[in-house]
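Page 47, continued from p. 46.
Same chain as before, 482 aa.
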Amino acid sequence: MPELSHRRRLLVLAICCMSLLIVSLDNTALNVALPSMQRELHATTSGLQWTIDAYTLVLASLLMLAGSTADRIGRKRVFMTGLTVFTLGSLLCSLAPNLELLVVFRMIQAVGGSMLNPVAMSIITNTFTDPRERARAIGAWGAVVGISMAAGPLVGGLLVESVGWRSIFWVNLPVGAAALLLTLRFVPESRAPKPRRADPVGQLLVIALFGSLTYAIIEAPDAGAATVLPFGAVALAALLALLIYEPRRAEPLIDLRFFRSAPFSGATVIAVSGFAALGGFLFLSTLYLQNVRGLDALHAGLWMLPMAVPTLLCAPLSGRLVGSRGPRIPLLLAGAAMTLSGILFAAFEAETSNLTLLAGYVLFGIGFGFVNAPITNTAVSGMPRAQAGVAAAVASTSRQLGQTLGVAVVGAVLASGIGDSPYRDAFVSAARPGWWILTACGATVLVLGYVTSGRWARGTATRTAERLEAPEVRETVGAGRA
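Result:
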């Protein structure tokens, strides 16, 4: 890809951030609309889980395929296809007559979404080649998540109260169309010099693993063991098959050598834990504020601002810290804040007091604001630029898988705890195990943030990068001799 001017690089960054904005805004705004959708579509708790998880599940399953495909056939081409499909899926979601079709249309949305975030990150990585400039760009990228969290609940609440939950999907239409036109005009095409071949077997195994695991978790409270256990067995078999099959391929869908790098492995687990906490936190908070406290969607959205605003403020600060001091400080701050927030809810029932509820939301917002930039930076730094799409896709997959599991596990725990009891009376006690799960997620971020950011961990990253680049170097030398 030719060297671009500073102004053009910033424009490319802005266009890529637009794609992240519509994806993130869609999810955060939709959480505020869940109770309204539950009443209109007569949905159960598991039905609400599927409106969120149908999207994140398909997204997680296809992200790595999208990243490698973009490296192979062109990042701009795949990015534009993703914008088109996502915008079309949003239109279909706004027209869904029932819960079942809404879930199907959310899956179509996700097919488009899978071509946006990892491909946009790959475009950014190949546009900003200077490490410090790249860290700042990734910090701005992470700030968009904060903007969507700040705007999402408020915009969602306004739309739900004034127009209805379907209007949430209408927001994506003009933004998606504008991003598509700007991409066509200003984003240059780029490809990997030596892209990977397609891996259909690996892709099917990933879909089987994620889909079976999520179904088993969500349906566990209502379905019997005879229904759930076979899906658990399929998930286990798919995982074992991936571990056996993928290392034998010359160009696998998931290059397991990446995980020899302690920072990369740590970033993957931190992404799963951090975004599982986010998914569970939003799910519990939305249902509590509207179904237990009786707030309307707008006032529930306003109550989410104490969590969203710190995320908005801390995300760019995290990016600057990563660029100047490395990932350790942001990860430690993120893990500590998220853990303290979980403890407030799990041990002290923070929901029952406005002051503790506010403190819990602020702490979680600070923690989530700091966690995103070091995940992204660690995932792509040190990896060969030729495989930037794959490395970024693994990080994005970890985020979506985490959010999927967070909603699935916390929702299942909540449904089991409530049972046949009155919803308002049973919610706080039924949600407590879910809050302990989110506390454990924060503690995982804290511990791994420390362990995987030291000298030993950086040494494993250096050795892994040398192994990944060695075959390319040998091929280049061999071609020169020939």
